[in-house]
């Protein structure tokens, strides 16, 4: 637990570092905090904060910078957000694809970082499914979508199924679940496991998981990214091309972003992942501020801003929160 003096100094240090991007020394901190403390007292408090892992001292400077742990404490307990600064921003109701593209651009333009939007999920349904034994415990799943698209996925099972068992499982799925959303199928099968033979039930559960992955449209089309080149202007990255290269590799691996932002879609409101807190994006140099958006009251996707750990979190929270509301409103009224 920090006392009020330590909290005020940490808050002042984080805010000053976000603004300037330079390690903060005792003299600067004394002025920024507004506290009438001696340099020795401030140094003692900073030493305590460093011991707690909230700030660190770069080798090249006598000043301190926040750590990811320090940013987290700042965001969770010290941040105040004004929510009326971007009231003039708007997204006109239009085709969903245009709304999503506009939202990514809006996030990028307002934040001057990278805007990311996961497009609304489509109902994953299948028209037909088949299982083909390739070898022991290795099965090819063939899925036909209502539009006639064919997807093939290989799954590895704990049991070596006989061809007759594969036919039985496929017939059961095709007879009872055609035209249903995969999410509904998964729920129904979980409820019906007791009435099915155990090995067939586990095969069908594996098939449902594969189906949900296969029927969803291509990941490259599901994630819309805008403003990657904004990171070229951020000193935290431009001074280290290795950091920048890793950041750009992340944007190429859109499946990673989908997994990360999918976590956000299961929670209400704005979520913040600071400098490596997410195992999906384990970069100390990057933070993500995200929020889900809705259509007619139902969460259908996620959007967010990706930028340096040294980002103005209060402003990013405003941008993401307001954009999620704008997207929800535009999609709910689009034709």
Provide the succession of SSEs. Answer: HHHEEHHEEEEHHHHEHHHEEEH
Widest β-sheet, arrangement of strands = 7-3-10-9-8
Number of structurally distinct domains: 3
- The multimeric state of the shown protein is single chain
The number of E-state strands comes to 10
CATH 4th-level superfamily of the largest domain: GAF domain
Q: What is the CATH C level class of the largest domain, in words?
A: Alpha Beta
Taking the sheet with the most strands, its summary is: 5 strands, antiparallel
Calculate the mean pLDDT score and round it: 80
- Residue stretches low in confidence (pLDDT < 50, at least 5 long) are 214-220
Provide the helix percentage.
40-55%
Q: How many helices does DSSP assign? A: 13
CATH architecture of the largest domain: 2-Layer Sandwich
Query: Compute the gyration radius: what is it?
Result: 25 Å
3D structure, described in words:
The structure is a single chain. The protein has 335 residues and is of the alpha+beta class. The protein folds into three domains: 4-77, Orthogonal Bundle (Arc Repressor Mutant, subunit A); 96-121 and 219-333, Beta-Lactamase, CATH 3.30.450; 128-215, Heat-inducible transcription repressor hrca homolog, domain 3 (Enolase-like, domain 1), CATH 3.30.390.60. The protein is built from 13 helices and ten strands. It has helices at 4-20, 26-33, 39-51, 68-77, 96-111, 163-176, 182-192, 198-215, 219-222, 235-238, 241-252, 254-264, 313-333; strands spanning 55-56, 65-66, 114-118, 128-135, 138-144, 150-156, 223-226, 271-273, 286-295, 298-308. A hairpin with an 8-residue loop joins strand 1 and strand 2. The model is unreliable at 214-220 (pLDDT under 50).
């Amino acid at each position: 637990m920090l006392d009020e003096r330590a909290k005020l100094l940490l808050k002042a240090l984080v805010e000053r570092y976000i603004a300037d991007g330079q390690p903060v020394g005792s003299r600067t901190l004394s002025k920024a905090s507004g506290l009438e403390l001696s340099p020795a007292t401030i140094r003692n408090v900073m030493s305590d904060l460093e011991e707690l892992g909230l700030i660190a001292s770069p080798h090249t400077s006598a000043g301190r910078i926040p750590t990811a742990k320090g940013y987290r404490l700042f965001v969770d307990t010290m941040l105040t957000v004004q929510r009326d600064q971007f009231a003039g921003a708007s997204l006109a109701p239009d085709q969903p694809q245009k709304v999503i593209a506009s939202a990514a651009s809006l996030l990028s333009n307002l934040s001057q970082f990278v805007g990311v939007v996961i497009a609304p999920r489509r109902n994953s349904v299948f028209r037909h499914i088949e299982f083909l034994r390739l070898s022991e415990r290795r099965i090819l799943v063939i899925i036909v979508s209502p539009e006639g698209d064919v997807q093939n996925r290989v799954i590895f099972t704990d049991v070596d199924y006989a061809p007759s068992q594969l036919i039985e499982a496929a017939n059961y799925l095709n007879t009872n679940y055609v035209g249903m959303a995969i999410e509904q199928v998964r729920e129904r099968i979980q409820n019906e496991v007791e009435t099915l033979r155990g090995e067939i039930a586990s095969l069908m559960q594996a098939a449902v998981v594969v189906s949900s992955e296969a029927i969803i449209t291509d990941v490259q089309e599901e994630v819309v990214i805008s403003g990657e080149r904004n990171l070229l202007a951020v000193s935290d990255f431009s001074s280290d091309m290795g950091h920048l290269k890793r950041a750009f590799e992340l944007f190429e691996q859109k499946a990673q972003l989908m997994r990360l932002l999918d976590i956000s879609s299961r929670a209400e409101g704005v979520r913040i992942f600071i400098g490596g807190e997410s195992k999906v994006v384990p970069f100390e140099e990057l933070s993500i501020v995200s929020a889900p958006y809705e259509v007619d009251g139902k969460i259908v996707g996620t959007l967010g801003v990706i930028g340096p750990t040294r980002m103005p979190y209060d402003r990013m929270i405003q941008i993401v929160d307001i954009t999620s509301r704008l997207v929800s409103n535009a999609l709910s009224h689009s034709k």
